[in-house]
Amino acid sequence: MLGQNPKSNPQNIQKLHTKIKNMEQLTLPPASLATGSITLPGSKSISNRTLLLAALATGTTEIRDLLASDDTSRMLEALEALGVKLKNFAENAWRVTGCAGNFPNKKADLFLGNAGTAFRPLTAALAFSNGEYALSGVPRMHERPIGDLVDALRLAGAQIDYLGNDKFPPLKISPAKLDLTQPIKIRGDVSSQFLTALLMALPLAQQEATIEVVGELISKPYIEITLNLMEKFGVSVQREGWQRFTIAANSAYTSPKEIYVEGDASSASYFLAAGAVAGNVRVDGIGQHSIQGDVRFAEALSMMGSQISYGENHITANKAETLKAIDLDCNHIPDAAMTLAIIALFAQGTTILRNIASWRVKETDRIAAMATELRKVGAIVEEGADYIKITPPAALTPNAVIDTYDDHRMAMCFSLVSLGGVPVIINDPKCVNKTFPDYFNSFAQVVKP
Hints:
5-stranded mixed sheet; single chain; 13 helices; 23% strand
């Protein structure tokens, strides 16, 4: 049974793991209790940023607690193809010998799957790497816009061509003709990954460079992660609010020798949500002072009525006497906000999640996908360009078949429906491999019939 603890019955968990690998569907049985603790996998955002910075740095970096997932595999494969020396010297630990800002291989074809945290930063870094590169991905990646990043890079002298549709991958990159005399303008309202990519790549130019953000910058906490990690690798960025960022001339990345990857705050949201809905769950690997913005998901749970407690490296969520609907601007927790859409099924009243336009350019159009699947379990849903409004049903629809759109977060979010005492069927459960390959086994540790 999925609800059994793997520590007490490892054979059943191994059977489940085998089933997930071989099944197109996974049926989660009705559950009524969530209790226990879970150790989080490493953060995807931190893992891929750290790998790239280590590759660009002078010196050798030992990265520990790196996320093992499809997305990090794509980054590792790309760095190896670019000539970076990599060694997996322990479980989830990699030794990266930096190339001092100069990739050894000046010609490469890189396949990056659907890994935005690899595709966008590598596009910018390779634009300043004086080589000939082709970057491609899965069909969905070729539907995810990259025109705003390419336009900004071209302002700096990058030579980038579209190999398919205008403004979308795949891309061809040729040596740049650098010109950083004018500020580089980048839209802030499409994806924070575009600004992250520029920030991480511009030290390679060895010239003073200024970035100006046009419009409101979304997902600011992800930029905080970028700036924090760049500083750990020796590059401090001067900024004026969220509108102007300056990288000094002759900036260069230097290895911090050793770095630990925090547990993934977005992944924490599923287990904290389980505790808030049905019991008491502690997540280890992340604390109140995490550099990840999605840690503030716990604040949203508290607003809904859950009791939250924090430690230096853990957070615990306790079942709310009554879960209350909220009306929340989710700009600060764009990924974890998806989990709030599921908790809305258990809350009294109508929940409104606002400022989530970035959902539409993720692994799938997450606003449309979330609305479609929530209706399958009985919710009344209204969707807009940048919001979703959810009114829970009197009773959840049992045996709903949930499409996951090759989107790991859809699969993980909708597993929580089973805590409403109804079975739920997850199509393509293997899509969780993108960031959390062991998710359903971990879910089984804390969710009980």
